[in-house]
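Lab notebook: predicted structure, single chain.

Context: the supervisor wants predicted structures on file for every construct in the current expression panel, including those that have not yet been purified. This is the next one on the list. No modifications to the sequence; it matches the entry in the shared construct table.
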Amino acid sequence: MWVLLLTAGAWSQEFRAMWVDAFHPGFKTPAEVSQLIAEARAGRFNAVIVEVRKRGDAYYNSNFEPKPADVSPPSFDPLADLIAKAHDTNTGPRIEVHAWLVTYPIWNNQDTNAAPPGHPVRLHPDWLTQNTAGQTWASGNYVFDPGHPEVQRHTFNVAMDIVTRYDIDGLNFDYIRYLGSTWGYNPVAVARFNARYGR
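Prediction complete. Output recorded below exactly as produced.
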């Protein structure tokens, strides 16, 4: 009986989270962050899962990827402001902040020159996945190839940049998959596969 009571106590806190995507307004200005946290508290949510990496960009002060143009003012750090306001118990219950990272889709415009300077799709077009026909544009996105070791290193660096510099409560990786069975044919990934399996 005592063990059952301990177990029940450990699960008494519900996880009531809001997903907040970066394709719409919600946390790109100080006023939006304040409104988001106020609405989360009013709705009795205890966590927000915020898309801080949409397509090779950073809704925080990144050491690896550029900040999107829709952050205002440009010096604003949305993730830092979210954490400060969500964790501030003087204004209401503490709210967890989970950083949501879109992992492999890297750019959603067929014109890669439209990407800002320093954007990964401009710096590393050789990291893009390819299909069996050698195409790199897929379903409205350019996507990095999971089989390329530099892609893995970059993904690791992006994640560690966040977890070592921001007091987040969780990290959520999204789109950590291949596009389908006809994708994953980046020349480096294919060479690694062939070397491993003797082809």
